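Could you please review the protein record set out just below?
***
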Amino acid sequence: MATLVALPLSLGVEGFAVQWAPAMLFATGWLAVVNSIGATSLLFILMRKGEASKVASLFYLIPGVTALMAYAVLGETLDALALAGFLVTAGAVWLCTRSR
């Protein structure tokens, strides 16, 4: 269903021309190797060494860590609400993963 909506929009706005640039190749390689293969391998290693629920709770840190990386690398702004949300999420993950 989504394809039926997105395809006409993409054909009308973008087309299918690819501009092969070093930045595009690096980004594609990074997504394919590091994010896909590396992250999945790390997930399986962590699950082998610990409880699956503790490992799964780490996924809640992804948006906050991404925002912090965007702040550090890309110069994005962080407002108080985003920082507060990250702190609440980090605290919840800490409660879930700490040893009892």
In short: The chain has a mean pLDDT of 86.
